[in-house]
Amino acid sequence: MNEGKIYVSFHVGRGGNFNNPGHLSFHGEEDFQQLIQRCSDVCIIISEDANGQPLPDDDWQLVDTGSNVILQGRDEIEAMTGRLEWDTIYDTDYVTTADDLSQSEVDLIWKAYCNEEYMSDDLKDAICTRMGKYRARSIKQYPGSLVVEIQDGSMTIDVDQQYGLFTRDEWKEDLEDRDFCPLSVEEILDRMDYYDATTETGFFSKE
Fold it and tell me: What is the pTM of this model?
């Protein structure tokens, strides 16, 4: 069953400060079939013989433009995860799932998330959870509190009678101590800046 799985794609090639081989980069969200389709200009699936007759499943091949066999067998070619090793550490594309990431892969997705690169809400939740951080899915304002919906429930931030008592930096430190992710910290602070239990206007933080 693939239901509920989040597929993520990476590339291994030259890169980094010295353009060294083996440099890993996060490409985005796609499954292995989408990756193969994206690379269809440099590879082809052979599933028939020269006479147009279907090949046995084990004889299916995915070959590159130089007729090199990249993948062998229908199951491997039609999988939802896998690797296309064009030239090992010099040029490889692969797909894995968000629940089967190495630490280096986690770090790359986390960096992309913090840089606000596009990704699905499911992947945002998954990477924040993996990093031990809470992600603010939504923020609701009530008299005396803000209720923040997170990955697995909600958290209440008590602001009753605290108007103007703390600076934005002090509130930021408090939210970071509560393990909110950096983007959520800023989102909550922005909401606090204009929070007033009565008028919903004016700065909440002390200047």
Answer: 0.89
Residues 6+ apart with CB under 8 A from 140: 146, 147, 148, 149
pLDDT in single tens digits along all 207 residues of the chain: 456 899 999 999 988 776 788 899 999 999 999 999 999 999 999 999 999 999 999 999 999 999 999 999 999 999 999 999 998 778 999 999 999 999 999 999 999 999 999 999 999 999 999 999 999 999 998 888 899 999 999 999 988 777 678 888 999 999 999 999 999 999 999 888 776 554 444 445 555
CA distances from 139 to 142, 149, 156, 171 (A): 10, 6, 10, 16
Minimal CA–CA distance to 156: which of 173, 181, 139, 168?
139
Taking a C-beta distance cutoff of 8 angstroms, is the pair 151, 129 a contact? Answer: yes
How far apart CA 8 and CA 13 sit, in angstroms, is 17
Compute the distance between CA of residue 188 and CA of residue 145 in angstroms, rounded to an integer.
Answer: 12
